[in-house]
User: Fold this.
Amino acid sequence: MASIESAISEQLAQAFTVCIPYELQPGMDQLPSDTRHTLLGELFRLAVQAWQERCLLPRHGPVTLEFLLAGCDVGIELDAPRARLTLVSLIRARH
Assistant:
């Protein structure tokens, strides 16, 4: 049993962390619930994908990605050496 717990603990320690900085939290809170849910789902999906494809990611420094999702301009920083995905910008597109 201890070896299973150790293996799970090791996997969790190596998993990507999703970080939403305190400064961006009010912007997240103002999104409609379905948009917020979609955005959070995509952030975690990208974190899982990054973990699965970590050998393909640059080993030096973070990579910044920008995309449009659910009516929002989203910027993320993917830092493979630190196993962290950080939301760096969130702008709700105006129509």
